[in-house]
Amino acid sequence: MKFCSNCAAPVVKRVPPGDSLPRWVCDACGEIHYQNPKLVVGALPEWEGRLLLCRRAIEPRYGYWTLPAGFMENDETAGQAALRETLEEAGARIELLVPFSLISVPYVNQVHLFYRARLLDLEFNPGEESLEVALVEEAQVPWKDIAFRTVGLTLKHWFADRKSGTYGFHAEDILPR
Amino acid sequence: MKFCSNCAAPVVKRVPPGDSLPRWVCDACGEIHYQNPKLVVGALPEWEGRLLLCRRAIEPRYGYWTLPAGFMENDETAGQAALRETLEEAGARIELLVPFSLISVPYVNQVHLFYRARLLDLEFNPGEESLEVALVEEAQVPWKDIAFRTVGLTLKHWFADRKSGTYGFHAEDILPR
User: Fold this and answer.
1) Nearest alpha-carbon partner for B177 in B154, B149, B152
2) What residues does A69 pair with on adjacent strands?
3) SS3 category, B8
4) What is the spatial distance between Cα A43 and Cα A112, in angstroms, rounded to a whole number?
5) Residues forming beta bridges with residue B45, ordered by sequence position
6) B168 touches chain A (CB under 8 A)
7) Cα–Cα distance for residue pair A117/A134, rounded to 1 Å
8) Of A81, A132, B50, B122, which is most buried, counting CB atoms within 10 Å of its CB?
9) In Å, how far is B40's CA from the nearest CA of chain A?
10) Nearest partner of B80 among A22, A107, A45, judged by Cα
11) pLDDT tens digits, A38-49
């Protein structure tokens, strides 16, 4: 059972008039509680051809490796989210370049966005959500221990583009295996 | 006053342990109700150098012109959202090309994403949310009556890129005036 955040009455899931999808509707106050996908924003912090990866100290995927990334917050831009997450998870200061990948993950209602970025110095340190942080070249990427498919895909594109000499923008979808 | 959607107890806004921002927290069941930006996804449907615009039949900005766009829904990809909104608002069938603009609008907690697209035929018709739909060339764009700043910015980039012969990808922020 779920309740209305405005008036605490029980809500029911049904298609509102004029709509085509079921929503959580409050019959007491009339509020329709829409649910929408969330943006996960991160960065590809580069230093001389190597990228900064974090090993997760939290679930999901405790102990696996990821790029610094997290849920975008209200009151910030996507770029600010990438800077904030990189500072929080890797203790690293970066300069953002341009968006590099945009990946829809509909089965978890998320869209992941990663920016190319330049690491400003080597004074990084794992934050509370990371066990360790490491600068890795392509041969050192722990491919079998990458936390999320969007991160693996983004890393593959980045190393391939680096080899080709031209960085593209990669828009894709990830569907259930 | 706001209430917990899980247990109907009143929630309070405060910084949870280990966090840095105030959240709506339920002390009865422990749930933290995060709030995150929403993605608005749309298309730039082209036909021989002209773009398809819709005049809004709903608030906000009733009577003003926009590109077909709307809130991305759960269970769909960003591309599916662009196709769906174009069909709903303009009755138009399109083929999506690539993402063209990604604009953060932090003061309304939104990120707007527009795709380049090719109109498949001229059988378009205004949906319930549009008063009319029109294919316009640059000189016909009602610049003073554009509904949203992200749409005006995206249109300006598109016509400029078309003239230059190269379509880019435009990542920007819009801040309060």
Assistant:
1) B149
2) A42
3) coil
4) 11
5) B117
6) no
7) 16
8) A81
9) 10
10) A107
11) 999 999 999 999
